[in-house]
Amino acid sequence: MSKNIVDEVSGLIKLDWDAAECYDRALEKIETPDMHRTIATFADDHRRHVDRLSEYMVSIGETPPERSKDIKGHLMESYAAIRSATGEVGALKSLHTSEKMTNKEYRKALENENLAEEAHAIIMDHYEDEKRHLMYVEEVLHTKV
Ligand SMILES: [Fe+2]
Ligand SMILES: [Fe+2]
């Protein structure tokens, strides 16, 4: 049984918040300048995803979830791993785990038959960003390790 649309979109908003938080923490450990710049744009992508999905919820008369300070959901473990990682490669490895999770959740959301057409289009658009994030992290890990 698929989640209803409010639960699905709220879940993605929380996931994107946590993903942005993971990226912010990872950025503290990434020293290569061009990598830092690229990864900073990914953190912004996730914040843009939060904004876009929140606007969508308001447009259908629903209230988007409030920002919660602690990371409890799917990214809890990778968030902890990013925080305790020492150095760039360690941070990238944990970021890889979190990005795989984010991609998986977006992919799952796209299979939800309860999504209205507009929500599906937004999520599809975001999923394209997620795939790009994952590919980049895999690429740099490949050249680093
Ligand atoms: Fe995202
Ligand atoms: Fe991402």
What do these coordinates show?
It is a single chain. By secondary structure, the protein is mainly alpha-helical. The protein has one domain (5-144): Ferritin (Up-down Bundle). The protein contains five helices and no strands. α1 (5-27) packs antiparallel against α2 (33-59), α1 (5-27) runs parallel beside α3 (76-84) and α3 runs antiparallel to α4. The longest helix is centred in the last third of the chain and has 28 residues, at 117-144. One fe (ii) ion is lined by residues 19, 42, 46, 99, 102, 130, 133.
Salient structural properties:
145 residues; mainly alpha; Ferritin; 5 helices; binds fe (ii) ion
Describe how the helices and strands are arranged.
Blueprint: H1 5-27, H2 33-59, H3 76-84, H4 87-110, H5 117-144
The structure holds fe (ii) ion (2 copies).
Q: What is the number of domains?
A: 1
Give the N-to-C terminal Cα separation.
41 Å
Radius of gyration: 15 Å
Mean pLDDT equals 94
Summarize, please:
By secondary structure, this protein is an all-alpha fold. The protein is built from five helices and no strands.
